[in-house]
Amino acid sequence: MLKIGIDKLGFYAPHLYLDMTKLAASRNVDPDKYTIGIGQDKMAVAPITQDAVTLAANAALEILDDRDKEAIDFVIFGTETGVDSSKSAGVYVHELLGLNPYARAIEVKQACYGATAGIQMAKGHIAMNPDSKVLVLGSDIARYGLNTSGEATQGAGAVALLISADPSIMTLEDQSVYFTSDIMDFWRPVYSDKAFADGKLSNEQYMAFFSKVWEQYKAKTGMELSDFAAICYHLPYTKMGYKALKTILGEGSEDVQERLSANYKMSTTYNRNVGNIYTGSLYLSLLSLMEQAEDLAAGSRIGMFSYGSGAVGEFFTGILQPNYQQHLHVDQHARLFASRIEVTVPEYEAIFEETLPTDGTTIELDIDHDPANICLAGVTDDKRQYVNKLN
Ligand code: CAA
Question: pTM above 0.90?
């Protein structure tokens, strides 16, 4: 039986962040509400020189070698922060990374579920073409608006997953349960650059979807809580996943509860310091778990709950591969976090308000202050101008 799964996993967040306690002070909110009630310490802030395309391309840059670039024949870009209603963000990334031209490149949208849809599509593609590799991207900038209740759950960043046969990090198991229902918990009309959310309904639906797919998964597979070393969640904020985990912890022994709670904490470290990155959030949590947990053995089964408002939910699983740790980039990610620059609340507000012209006006952006290798350098003739500083 062909094993298919995650061969490499890359991550990128912009170089600026806002301290949540400073945001709380400025909004006259008790800082504990943000750091404990919501569970966020820092929020990544994207400068105007980073968009969904550049964040994803920077995430992919850290993992791909020349052999991968030749073998990738499918780029699937999951995002809800697309930069064009027609051309896919995948085509831009394909060019920026210099991938094999004999490839497909598309964009997939269903709120935060897009990258999961991409991974499932990639599995089918690899099953038919075992020698090929698929690059799945999840990249977003979460914007609710200044002084909104969603403000504390913003963020920006991207993940890049290389999906292949005989993967080095994790094989994806075939059994999975998915569920769709038309609800208006969170959405972004095409005329708005900020998301609309019914916060209370979105929390309720997240929990309801988790319960539905978890119960159905157990009924379908005969698995139980003790079969899992950890469960990773889509994390709009880190308290959300914990609320869902708490509803099922009682199904396990004390040991199982301890293990899952401890690993949950590890799976939220990165997200707690980045914020919501929508499509990439679940995979950032998986990365955080693998890079932060000290005794997560190869062979461990990890559960994953993906949720995209609107809404589609899915529960699926993976098995960690022998020596998976050797294929992670722990030091690189430690450097990424350590080198970030803090912005003040007024600076964050100014960056938030600085948006690209929507009337076709030419704009040139200063990319010298953005340390990222791949940046948006401006817009000319209604065309975004991307630069890979390494070329
Ligand atoms: N100390 C400790 N905790 C405190 C506190 C304090 N001083 N003050 C408040 N809290 C706690 C509250 O008790 C509450 O905890 P519980 O949820 O466990 O009861 C928590 O802090 C949040 O408080 P509120 O419910 O009052 O917060 P809020 O209404 O201002 O906003 C929110 C919270 C609804 C999540 C809002 O930020 C929002 O709308 N975010 C965007 C939507 C979202 O992220 N939804 C999540 C599910 S949808 C999804 O997953 C898809 C996606 O990515 C968007």
Answer: yes
